[in-house]
């Protein structure tokens, strides 16, 4: 497996219930995973642990045969090779689109940075926008720039936190499909968290549903629909059984 998350648990200070309880997941190279759950389910905690913003109580994370954390190891965030796309995109307002994308390309020659920047602009279809500033872009365009910046250093893994929360409903439909195409074209392994089932079904290869810090479901979007259908049928049957029989 390209990414192996093994038996990871975490609790926030002064809380009794764990935010994440023995979470385990294997991810293939280029796979798009959705972490689906309500507020407080633990989905954002997973991103923070993977990114290195929190230290787990126990467990192990391995990416491409390199251990990022376990009982003896804790690699700092900047050394993990993980990209992050935040809810508010976190673009630098004083920098152009080009400068934002090149920001994380340290250690590269100027010509190589520019070439990589142009590759990213082509990938997200914003070739004509390199000299614009974030305030001159729409919400969808800002998101594309944030994704391009995250992909530019060629990370092992990209994490996306509620990627559509700042977009209006009409724009969300188009951006969902565009984002999946971008990730697949770049062959980037990615995990995104969302509370919206539609996001998960359109974008993900597999969906992981969390409930109270524990894995409640994992499978393909079609598997999830079958599960919901079976649960609905079972609930309907239980309701019918509970109703009194009326003899006429």
From TrEMBL:
GO terms for molecular function: ABC-type ferric iron transporter activity; ABC-type quaternary ammonium compound transporting activity; ATP binding; ATP hydrolysis activity. SUPFAM superfamilies: P-loop containing nucleoside triphosphate hydrolases. GO terms for cellular component: membrane. It comes from the Bacteria. Its EC number is 7.6.2.9. CDD domains: ABC_Carb_Solutes_like (cd03259). It is an enzyme of class 7 (translocase). Keywords: ATP-binding, Cell membrane, Ion transport, Iron, Iron transport, Membrane, Nucleotide-binding, Transport. InterPro entries: AAA+_ATPase (IPR003593), ABC_SmlMolc_Importer (IPR050093), ABC_transporter-like_ATP-bd (IPR003439), ABC_transporter-like_CS (IPR017871), ABC_transpr_FbpC (IPR015853), P-loop_NTPase (IPR027417). Gene3D superfamilies: P-loop containing nucleotide triphosphate hydrolases. It catalyses: a quaternary ammonium(out) + ATP + H2O = a quaternary ammonium(in) + ADP + phosphate + H(+). Residues 3-237 form the ABC transporter domain. The complex is composed of two ATP-binding proteins (OpuCA), two transmembrane proteins (OpuCB and OpuCD) and a solute-binding protein (OpuCC). This is Carnitine transport ATP-binding protein OpuCA.
């Amino acid at each position: 497996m390209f990414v192996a998350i093994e038996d990871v648990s975490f609790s926030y200070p002064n809380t009794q219930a764990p935010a994440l309880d023995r979470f385990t997941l294997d991810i293939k190279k280029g796979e798009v995973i959705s972490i689906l759950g309500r507020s407080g389910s633990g989905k954002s905690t997973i991103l923070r642990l993977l990114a290195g913003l929190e230290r787990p109580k126990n467990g192990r994370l391995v990416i491409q045969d390199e251990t990022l954390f376990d009982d003896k190891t804790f690699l700092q965030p900047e050394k993990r090779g993980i990209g992050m796309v935040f809810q508010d995109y976190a673009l630098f307002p004083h920098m152009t689109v080009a400068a934002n994308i090149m920001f994380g390309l340290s250690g590269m020659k100027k010509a190589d940075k520019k070439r990589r920047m142009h590759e990213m602009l082509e990938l997200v279809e914003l070739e004509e926008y390199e000299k614009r500033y974030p305030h001159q872009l729409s919400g969808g365009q800002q998101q594309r720039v944030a994704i391009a910046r995250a992909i530019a250093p060629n990370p092992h893994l990209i994490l996306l936190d509620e990627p559509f929360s700042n977009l209006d409903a009409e724009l969300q439909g188009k951006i969902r499909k565009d984002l999946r195409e971008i990730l697949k074209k770049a062959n980037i392994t990615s995990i995104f968290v969302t509370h919206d089932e539609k996001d998960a079904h359109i974008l993900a290869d597999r969906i992981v549903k969390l409930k109270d810090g524990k894995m409640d479901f994992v499978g393909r979007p079609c598997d999830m629909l079958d599960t919901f259908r079976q649960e609905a049928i079972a609930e309907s049957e239980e309701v019918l059984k509970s109703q009194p029989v009326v003899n006429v």
